[in-house]
Amino acid sequence: MSAPAKPRRLARAWRLVGPARWYLEQDHLLLADQHWWTVDYRRFYYSDIQSVTVWPRPRPIWRFAGAPALAALFTWPAAVLFLLVARHGFRAWPHVGWVAAGEAGLVAAAVGLLEALAGPFVHTRIVTRYSRFETPLVHRWRRAERALRVLAPLLAATQSAEQESAGPRGTTPEPTPTVAAEPAAPGSMPAQMTGTELPARTVEAAGR
Amino acid sequence: MTAGLSCPRCHQDVPSAGFAPALLTCPYCGLPMAVLVGRAAAQMRAMRPETAVGGAATCFFHAENAATVACAQCGRFVCALCDLEMEGLHRCPLCLTAARQAASVASLRERDVLYDSIALTVAWAWILFYPTWLVAAPTVLYLTLRHWKAPRHYLVPRGRWRFLLASAIVLLPVLAVLMLTVSVRRAAL
Question: Considering only CB atoms, which chain A residues are within 8 Å of B8?
Fold first, then answer.
């Protein structure tokens, strides 16, 4: 048995329990949703998708304050050491404390800056004919439009083809009675009768 | 056109155009959104099986419905309602359920167990409490040998580097002990 071909990846969203990866298959969008050591698959067929909505998740303050807080946690012994040693002598030690605190502060600032530049995380809602499903399509808001741009032509091609095969809506011709080439014999039905209109005589007979 | 799109925050209807992805802002609550709207009809497709007339073959599950196709696996006649087409094959509901349980059809597979990830986790986790190496090493080697081909046959195939890395990690102590023994012997000689 040969190994299946790897499908094209559309996007990926990171989470603590494992990434959610989205793949473009021939007729559906495949979600490989990893939860620790298992991966669950879910399929969204292009012909069934009604809408895909991506919106940014509000960023809590700890996304920015977390790194500096963590840095402070690790550097407070150095700061205390600095204060104590500064009061009681050992002139070399204060410099050690400042350098450590400075490095930790720089790292924290860099993490905060990167977080601000990367933008917010997102939520995604996919509405199909049969279900409504919410899970992140992409990791960050800035990648959302690009992912939708890749998905759009596939959706348009599939749904347009389906609509064409089903026939255009609202253009179904109204049933019209066809006039027989020759006049019908009295009391008989016309030879060709399409549509819903019945001859007045038949209606009268039914009324009696 | 209004495509039945609602704002995820305030649940108000948001007008949007179809197919081309658009960046919108909800006119009611101001939430920014990236939206792609399809044209799939809201209602489910109507299934209207034909009624069996005279001596026509009937559906195995619905005696009143005319059979339209035979199941590719068991050969039962099924009506349009029971005809389930998947990967070009027509199956009856029973065969489709069986295929789903056996995960024999790729389009029906719902879950894979990632043995390579399990092996890798076991491989590094023993470092936290190293006497458990005695259990971890055989477990990793067993998983590697037993499921060596598995990552290639996941629905989304993966490489085998996790198995290799896991095996290398658990075999490191063996290598270390061997090197130590050799060096001690050399020193004794």
Answer: 53, 55, 123, 125
